[in-house]
Amino acid sequence: MQLNRTCDGVKRRDMLKIGSLSFGGLTLPNYLAMANNGQATQGRADRAIFIELPGGPSHIDTFDLKPNAPSEIRGSFNPIKTNVPGIEISEHLPKLAKVADKFCILRGVSHTLAAHRLGQEYVNTGSKPIPALEYPSFGAVLAKERPSDAEIPSLVAVPKAAQGPGFLGIRYAALETNSTPTQGQPYSVRGISLPDGIGVHEVNRRQALLKKLDRRFGELEQSDQLIEGLDQFGAQAYSMITSSRARQAFDIGQEPESFSRQFGDDSFGQSCLLALRLVESGVRLVSVQLGGWDTHQDNFTRLKSNNLPKLDAGLSGLLNGLEQRGLLGTTAVYVTGEFGRTPKINQRSAEGGRDHYPRCMFMLMAGGAVQGGQVIGESDEKAAGPRNETITPDDVAASFYYNLGIDPTTEFNSMTGRPITLVRDGNVIKELFS
Contact at 8 Å (CB) between 377 and 386? Predict the structure, then answer.
């Protein structure tokens, strides 16, 4: 999958920290070696899919159109009706318009961080970045609070993790796929899928050899806790590799064509299909990315010819698929970019573009106890800011955790023993659940 660069020229996968803590993704052995068990809690949803739109999608061209605004603001897209009376979205999202009853649109979400990485960390954690501390991703928190069993990873990132585990520590990092699935082709994840020509019997044979070597090391280092730990996590890795359940979870080729076609044939749609299979198998949170929203130039052509059709097919397919599998009521879905785009169209190209604009943006939520078919919040007549009360990323994060049965005011201890509130400034948006 192509890595999208933001206008500042930095790959997101290379910027995984603000402050003194940093972490990228882990391969399977490292992921398992740092995994840690915790106590599960009961909530409205018990699994989640977090869809990130890196680059900052234009709110005024997607879910918050202003057809009565001046031409230099409203742009060339028109609104269309959805299956919910009174709710309209972009004409280039026709499939999502047919499932608007399954998700909630948050309009007029606002913050002040106009830099890609700062905004990205903010919406990935629900807390404003500070230099001395990195907050954990939603998936890291869920992996700590509700870990999966040994055969299935708790947190999977497709293809990369945009946010690390922060102060919770590396043991709660995501297992990264490092690639995206392609329709009609076998999909393998290094460390889980068995290479061609190697069967489970061969893995068993090699495992037996490793045990012999481990016994020899044990004779030399009877009290070495590191070796004991490697034995433990090696056993977990072995369990996952030889588990048909784990391998089948990543095998989107098992889905009938009649089901998979609704997701679209591009990598994002197939990643949404993979996310569905993973949460169905027991993964607690799957993060999926659809980049390319940094539309300083050629905003309208780029959106209508590439990004919006992909988002339309993939997200509508995911919502329909979750409902068809009976999973929508137990799966919290959260869709967001790091900010919106300027209402006024710039003149950087023939058709113009839109620049960074954190003062007004949209977010989408669905699943669990979220009541779909509604719009919460409102922007002003030019989509330049909230009309009335402001919704912040903190509020949405608090609501996301609430939907998962996790108290957003929970205090965790940092690696130095410092007590830190999970979401320090957010309030649950009650209208989401009523």
Answer: yes
